[in-house]
Amino acid sequence: MAELSKQHWSAARYAATAHFVPAFGAPVVELLAPQPGERILDVGCGDGVLTATIAAAGADVVAVDAAPDMVAAARAKGLDARVVPGQSLAFEREFDAVFSNAALHWMRPQETVLAGIARALKPGGRFVAEMGGHNNTAAIQVAFRAVLAKRGIEALDLSPWYFPSSAAYRARLEAAGFRVEEIAIVPRPTPLEAGLGPWLDTFAEDFFNPLPPEKRIPAKQEVCDLLQPILMDETGLWIADYVRLRFRAILSG
Ligand code: BEZ
Q1: 80 Cβ neighbours under 8 A, 6+ residues apart
Q2: Which atom of ligand 1 is nearest to the CA of 21?
Q3: What is the pLDDT of residues 148-186, one digit of tens each?
Q4: pTM over 0.70
Q5: 3-state SS assignment for residue 13
Q6: Whose CA is nearest to atom 4 of ligand 1?
Q7: Which of 17, 72, 144, 156 is in Cβ range 3.0-4.6 Å of 194 for a Cys bridge?
Q8: Helices marked H in 57-165
Q9: What is the number of other CB atoms lying within 10 angstroms of the CB of residue 213?
Q10: Exposed / middle / buried, residue 78 (Cβ in 10 Å: 0-12, 13-18, 19+)
Q11: Rounded Cα distance, 222 and 220, in Å
Q12: 209: CA distance to ligand 1 center in Å?
């Protein structure tokens, strides 16, 4: 497993190829149930589409993300967005709730991230999040392993992702001082309207960057060729095998 992702985040590319990420985030915002006047921290806010939804409910939201281009896009929406990696949260007992969608699986060490989130919350505050769960994009990851193994590379060593089971993440949350109210794995087949190639560019640079530049496009094409009979439907739509882990936890004490 790679220690830190070197994925390059472009807000324009994300909006063009990954707009489904916030679009599918509505149930997580519903689980958060933001109230007017609450102070809420959004960890890994991306371009701020969901942060804006939370702010529209009347909450006072601080949004953080490690990627400057995404934070600039969030600020352009009028949000209080700051460039702060999830591993470097320096808030102290300030927030009624912490929210996160489709971001935690990029962050490690998880212990550091969860400790920062726990520190940021007032006692009794809630942590509501969704991330990739166990078996997320399993077919895609197996294809990476097959294609890169032919080039002498173990894809698992390059993976920037952490997709835990509910039992594994419950244990992490409890170790960080949370009482888990609910946690569940939610399979969510995800249409990739832009296709698998643009998805690979947007999310999977870490797997292809170790190859010489001229070998990256053929390797990506090989991944697409392997997966097409599995992930493309009869109409030509790619549907990725997403699996989410969604939870609501309360900070003890
Ligand atoms: C996800 O949000 O589940 C995800 C994002 C990037 C790569 C793989 C999965």
Answers
A1: 61, 62, 63
A2: 2
A3: 999 999 999 999 999 999 999 999 999 999 999 999 999
A4: yes
A5: helix
A6: 132
A7: 17
A8: 68-75, 110-120, 138-149
A9: 8
A10: exposed
A11: 5
A12: 18
Give the Å distances, CA to CA, from 250 to 29, 170, 186, 227: 16, 12, 21, 40
Q: Alpha helix locations (H) across 18-60?
A: 20-23, 26-32, 49-56
> What pLDDT digit, counting tens, does each position of 35-72 carry?
999 999 999 999 999 999 999 999 999 999 999 999 99
Q: Whose CA is nearest to atom 3 of ligand 1?
A: 132
The length of the chain in residues reads 253
Name the residue with tokens 């971001």. 103
Tokens coding 181: 């109210």
Question: Is 123 buried (19+), middle (13-18) or exposed (0-12) by CB count in 10 A?
Answer: exposed
Q: Which of 203, 227, 231, 241 is the pocket-test mutation for ligand 1 (most atoms within 8 Å of CB)?
A: 203
The Cα angle at residue 65 between residues 143 and 126, in degrees rounded to 5: 100
Which residue in 77, 29, 64, 30 sits closest to 50, CA to CA? Answer: 29
